[in-house]
Design brief:
The chain contains twelve helices and eight strands. By secondary structure, the chain is α+β, with helices and mostly antiparallel strands. It has a four-stranded antiparallel β-sheet.
Length: 398
């Protein structure tokens, strides 16, 4: 039996057993032990990996990023040749991933919102068609949908020499859709700077308009003002840059299309597949958000004589967004991560370029670490933005 310790004055002091019986002390001890085990496991894995790499004479580090890539990439948003470095190649893959993820998020939000509202339509045909769309594409694995669209898209268009031209200077072939684009000019850089400046000005005008509304109760036409500011500044920059009109027009030369911008079948398959699949989940999120709004809001809008479309746009949807934003964030994250499946249809995203880099350099751990870190960063950026947006949409109690 442990001896009871007596402090001066006859007050009993705590012994070791008393501390171990304290829940807070035990919680701290357990956390220290858990952290120690994690560190020990990490040290073992890292040291064991380095030993195995050294035993097999495999170099480590990221020095390979400065070496010549020596492989081509079918589509790139920046200047790239096989003589570019591996770092440039990985940047091309990253930009391709961001492009398809960003466009997919925008399109799935629009399509999902439309079908989510249609699920609640009073029209039986519209309601059932929306339900069929959601239940069909939601229950087919996204990888199979990518294969499906990649098999459909090239076969839907003829060869280059028989290209379709539904719109003047727009050519549709089994190698993609070719559209005219402006020839590079400094004026477009000025327009980009003007667009950024316009967005900054619109932000401060919006804050001023909100303060004016709170102080006087008089609304300010912020939408039209924003359109005017943005279009006006961009137009001024365009005119100041010389108002260039030269266009790069796609034309049939030999057995292929030259010029213009090519929207490849691989990109279309990935974009359509991810958009359709994710939009079904967005539709359910929107539907549940609308149903979460109390029915009294509809009744109040009806009592004011508002049309159902106006009630939905001005009253119901803004309130439903407060419920829908958190699950929408999950769907945006899923779409971004599902974009890694693009490698299955040959789209040169980050994973595809990283795999080629890994095969040529043997730097498997480094290549995998890079695209794991990139996807983690993209997910965190998306989460931070959506959390900020969620806080902006939240009700502020007075």
């Amino acid at each position: 039996m442990s001896k009871t310790q007596q402090a001066p004055g006859g007050v009993r002091s705590k012994g070791l057993a008393d501390y171990l019986n304290d829940e807070n002390v035990r919680a701290v001890i357990y956390q220290i032990i858990a952290i120690g085990l994690v560190i020990l496991a990490g040290w073992y894995l890292v040291s064991n990996t380095l030993d195995n790499l050294e035993r097999q004479n495999i170099s480590t580090g990221f020095g390979f990023l400065d070496l010549e890539a020596s492989f081509g990439i079918s589509e790139s948003m920046i200047d790239y040749t096989p003589k570019s470095t591996y770092a440039t190649a990985l940047l091309v893959g990253l930009l391709n991933t961001v492009k398809v993820a960003f466009l997919g998020i925008v399109l799935c939000t629009i399509i999902g919102t439309i079908f989510g509202i249609a699920r609640l339509s009073s029209n039986w045909i519209v309601r059932k068609l929306a339900a069929i769309y959601v239940e069909t594409f939601r229950n087919i694995p996204v990888l199979l949908q990518l294969f499906f669209w990649y098999a459909i898209i090239p076969g839907a268009f003829p060869a280059a020499r028989n290209a379709l031209e539904p719109i003047p200077d727009v050519l549709m072939t089994n190698r993609g859709i070719y559209i005219p684009v402006p020839v590079a000019d400094n004026a477009y850089e000025f327009m980009g700077i003007a667009a950024i400046l316009a967005l900054i000005i619109i932000y401060f005008v919006k804050k001023w308009a909100d303060k004016r509304l709170d102080a006087t109760g008089q609304p300010f036409p912020i939408v039209w003002a924003s359109v005017g500011i943005f279009a006006g500044l961009v137009l001024v920059a365009y005119l100041a840059g010389g108002a260039p009109t030269a266009m790069d027009i796609p034309e049939l030369k030999g057995f292929n299309i030259r010029g213009g911008y090519n929207i490849s079948p691989e990109f279309l398959a990935v974009l359509i597949g991810l958009t359709v699949y994710t939009s079904t989940y967005v539709a359910e999120v929107v539907r549940s958000g609308i149903e979460a709004v109390p029915s009294g809001q509809w009744e109040a809008a009806d009592s004011l004589g508002l049309k159902r479309s106006v009630s939905l746009r001005k009253i119901i949807l803004p309130q439903s967004m407060r419920v829908a934003i958190p699950p929408l964030t999950n769907q945006y994250l899923n779409l971004t991560k599902n974009s890694s499946l693009a490698v299955a249809v040959g789209y040169p995203d980050l994973v595809s370029v990283s795999n080629t880099t890994m095969n040529q350099t043997g730097q498997a751990i480094e290549a995998i670490s890079i695209y794991m870190a990139v996807y983690l960063g993209l997910s965190l950026i998306t989460s931070l933005f959506m959390n900020w947006f969620n806080n902006k949409m939240a009700l502020v109690e007075r």
